[in-house]
Structure formats: structure tokens, C-alpha cells
Amino acid sequence: MARRPFVIVKGTVWFCNECGGEAAKWSGQCPHCKAWNTLVEEKVAHRGSGGGRTKSRGTSLRVGEGGGAVALTEAMKDESVRLTTGMGEIDRVLGGGLVEGSVVLIGGEPGAGKSTLVTQLSTQLASHGTVLYVSGEESTAQIASRARRLGVSDDAPVRLLASGEVSAVEQAVRMHSPRVVVIDSVQTLRVDELESAAGSVTQLREVTARLVTMAKQEKRAVLLIGHVTKDGMIAGPKVLEHLVDVVLSFDGDRSGGPRVVRALKNRFGATGELAVLEMTRDGLREVPDPSALFLAERPKDVPGSVVLASADGARPLLLEVQALVTPTAMPSPRRVATGIDPTRLSILCAVLAQRAPLPLREHDVFVAMAGGASVDEPAADLGIACSIASSVVEVALPADLVVFGEVGLAGEIRAVPRATIRLEEAVKLGFKRALVPRANVERGEVPPGVKAVGVGHVREIAAWIERKAEGR
Ligand code: TYD
Ligand code: MG
């Protein structure tokens, strides 16, 4: 690939960690995206033309004969090739396999198992052609020893490169012409023409743009690993997420709970799709029935424990939510959430206090998703509300009950999408009863095998729970 020569113009520029915007001087607030305390200083060597901007280089749009535009019908004939990764769950999250010429960013905390995952994927992807595994963090001996543990076969065509230079990667690509390139991690790679350190905003932008160009022009699939910061953002600016085709988050901790791979952005499939994996001594194992895993240690007959049916992507997932409501010693009671959005919990508490009404104004409310799970969809509202109500009235809900529904500010319970697949998953796991939005019942979305009660307002919940306690 011919590269334009660099004209080195040294200077200091301030970059926003959030949006990647540039500023000539420091200020507390980013002039572009208005985020606070996100500007970082960087020495840059500007390219003569274009001033080091990556935008124009990150895409490869096809131009028709004589510079005209390509006919859509013509372009539609180029169907993208998908490579199976050997892990059915990961293929599903990707939208049916890894698309040739696509760039996938996998973000996760240290120790989550990203290197393990890409090593396993590499060996499977090698059945389609050569895989180049680039590590800026580990030596080839370290990668090889992990591969040995993971039972990689001797003849898998995987090439290892321990380097932090993009030019070395490009050279290796020219030499071995791999079908898939794995970069572990994007933060350890640098472009030598730029002065700033690896992992800085300028480097990340340039490194990613060069890899994207390579992927698009030469039709190679690129898997990029990205470290995330404590608050769950992929370290580096948002531009990184804009440049790539697919962003996967890899959640899970070192304590050994389930790992969840979720598509946050996908140009070739649905977002919200998730796969559950388990870390074992021989690497990551797919969990085909994650609901059972999340419900394994569920206590029976305990007030505050409720099973909710979430379905962020196409896959339904049954999760246990627990609430504990206790009298407060504070002037303003506490709302503490684990695995759910704290703002959502505050709103639900306010709605329940005002509309149910439940005596929550003098009580602390603690809500946690069990088993390290997390939910981020409105359909979880009713399950959370029921667990709070159950804890307030000190009545355990039936063990075979599943709950879902969105709660509005007026206390109304709204219909949710994919009600049938949520209920079908519940039936499969032996649940016999369901508490769901009335509108979903009226639309005829209840499959056989489950008795669903439709509710329309939060004030019906506490009454329903008390009736259950009396055995009615
Ligand atoms: P790793 O993939 O290196 O995490 P990351 O690249 O996200 O930082 O590995 C995570 C942890 O998993 C590590 O502490 C060791 C453990 N592990 C296993 O339990 N089994 C295995 O087969 C492997 C390879 C690692
Ligand atoms: Mg690693």
C-alpha cells in the first residue's frame, strides 16, 4: 500500500478522550462534546495534508467507472462472506459469523479472558486460511504456552508476531497474506511516524484507521482487543467505536462468574445479542443454557427474590433480581443498585412510593442482579418493582413465577417486545406462572404451558402479592 510521506510539524494539541475532538489549548470542558475533564495533552506530528485526520483514510468507498457512483443493485450482488468462528454463540452475536473485510473491536477489563477468547477463535478461524496473531503485550512463548493449554492442534496455520509497530504488522500481512488478523491489544500498537506514546488518542486513531484501511482494501477480517477503563468505556476516544464495524463488550471478572459477550454495535447484525461463556481450566466454554446457570443458586421462599425474563437481543435470558428494603437511618434514604442502572432504580422507587403506594420514603432500597448479571432494558422494571414490593410486604413470591414489563412514570405497566419468546424460555425452565403487562396478554402473546396474569398499573402489584400470601 503506497503511503503518503509525512511532513513532521511538531506541536502540542489537546484531545478529548470522549469524542476525539481537538482543541488548541486546555480547558475544563471539551469544546466539541461538552464533556468535563476529558482533554489530554499530546505532542503530534501532523501530516502535511489533512493534518493527521483519520476520517478520509478510514473508509474505502467504491467508486464506479470514471469516478461515478456505483449502482445499488450492482453493489447488492457483492454479498459479504462470513467466516464461522467455531463458537456458535459468538457467531450468533456477530450476526452469523465474522464478515470478511470487517473490523471487530472486543472491549473488556484485564483478566476477563479476551486473550483466551481470541486464541481459541484464531485456531478455529485458521480453518478458513492463515491467521496472524499480533501481540504487543505478550511474547510469542507466552502466546504459545496458552495455545498449548487450550489444545491448539500442531498444524493450525496461525502466525504469531510480538510487536508494537503497525508497520511490522503491515509487513507481516504482506508476507503471509492472512485472512484474519488479531491485534492484542490496540492500545499497545503504535505508528512510528507519530511521537506520542502507544495508547494515546492520536496513536489509537491512527493505528485503528490504518487497520481499517487494510481490512477494507484487502478484505481481511480484523479482531481488535481493546482495554476498558473502570467505568466500562473502551479506553480511548469514542472515535474508535465509530471507525470499526462491530463493537463487542466482554464482561466478567476474575472471580470466575459467567462471562457475557454482547454486541454494542453491529453493522452486520442486531445489537443486544449476547453469548454467555464460562472460563474453565481448558479455556472458555459456551454455555448453551445460560438461564439455568444464572438461576442455579436461587433461594426459595425468600421475600425480595424474583425471576425476570430479559430479552435484550433475540435471546431470552431469565435472571434473578433481589431486593432488600430496610428502615433508613439517613435523612434521605439510599437507593443502591448492582447490575441495573441506578437512575432507573431511583425512578422506580419514586413511582412505587407515589403510585402504588409503597412506604419507601423512609426506607433504604438495595437491588442486585444475582450471579454477576446485568440488565439494561425497560422490560426489567416490573420484575424489579415486584422484588421491592415483595421485600416491603415480607412475602415471598411463588418459586415458579416469572415477571417482565415496563413501568411508566404514571405507574402504568406497558407492553414489551418479544413477550412470547420470554415466556417460552420460562416454560422450558419449568416456570408455570407469569406476571406480565396486560396489553401483552390481550395481544394473545402467551404460549401454552404458562398461566399469565396481566397487570396494568403498579398499584395492582402489592395487592396481587398479598393475595398470593393468603393462598388465593
Ligand atoms: P486472559 O485471556 O489473559 O485475560 P485478558 O486478555 O482479558 O486480560 O485470561 C484471563 C484469566 O483466565 C487469567 O487470569 C487466567 C485464566 N485462564 C483460565 O482460567 N483458563 C484458561 O484456559 C486460560 C487460558 C486462562
Ligand atoms: Mg490479554
Protein architecture, described:
The protein has 472 residues and is an alpha/beta fold. It folds into three domains: 8-47; 82-288, P-loop containing nucleotide triphosphate hydrolases (Rossmann fold), CATH 3.40.50.300; 293-469, Ribosomal Protein S5, domain 2 (2-Layer Sandwich), CATH 3.30.230.10. The chain is built from 13 helices and 23 strands. The strands form five sheets. A nine-stranded mixed sheet has the order 8-7-9-10-6-11-12-13-14, sandwiched between helices. Residues 1-8 and 48-60 have low confidence and may be disordered. The chain binds thymidine-5'-diphosphate and magnesium ion (MG).
Q: Quick recap of the structure?
A:
It contains 13 helices and 23 strands.
Largest sheet: 9 strands, mixed
- Which descriptor suits the 3D outline? globular
- Which ligands accompany this protein? thymidine-5'-diphosphate, magnesium ion
State the CATH superfamily name of the largest domain: P-loop containing nucleotide triphosphate hydrolases
How many β-strand runs? Answer: 23
The low-confidence runs, each spanning 5 or more residues with pLDDT under 50, are 1-8, 48-60
Overall pLDDT? 87
